[in-house]
Amino acid sequence: MRTETPHDIDRVREVITAAFGSSEDADLVDALRADACWIPELSLVAEDETGTVIAHILFTRAAIGDTPLLTLAPVSVDPARQGTGIGSTLIRAGLDAARTLGEHTVTVLGHPTYYPRFGFERADAHGVTCTLGAGPDEAKMVLSLDDHPIPSGDMTFGKPMADAVSAYQPQ
């Protein structure tokens, strides 16, 4: 596992497109790379034994109220490698990298039975809302990376992510 490099961009796009069955999420990542919310150190890839990128995760700048934090999305694993633990390993590595960078809180909009294994909890239990839509409340989650309290308020995102969140429907 390592930080994405410019050399990886085409392969990352292939992995994301294959993982989600369309190019929408790959287009989102391309738009995020060009946005102020992009954090290059938190775009991570996993490689197989031949050095081929087989998974990708991304954390971008977001906020709850006026408090800056991170949001995790998308998480993409080559379909031939899904279910092998690579995604989970990459998420844990990404959360550790975020801690190392001094980040305190991460949000995710995702499957409510998957993300709690990493410590994510329902956002509404912490006074956090997401007025952009983003599916059911149980899909809106938050994680404290340290002993800082989770801020309360509405989740906000960089423009490309906000546009995607408005259309998000968890699967």
From TrEMBL:
Residues 1-146 form the N-acetyltransferase domain. One of its GO terms (molecular function) is acyltransferase activity. It holds the Pfam family Acetyltransf_1. This is GNAT family N-acetyltransferase. CDD domains: NAT_SF. Gene3D superfamilies: 3.40.630.30. It comes from Streptomyces ehimensis. Its EC number is 2.3.-.-. InterPro entries: Acyl_CoA_acyltransferase, GNAT_dom. It comes from the Bacteria. Keywords: Acyltransferase, Transferase.
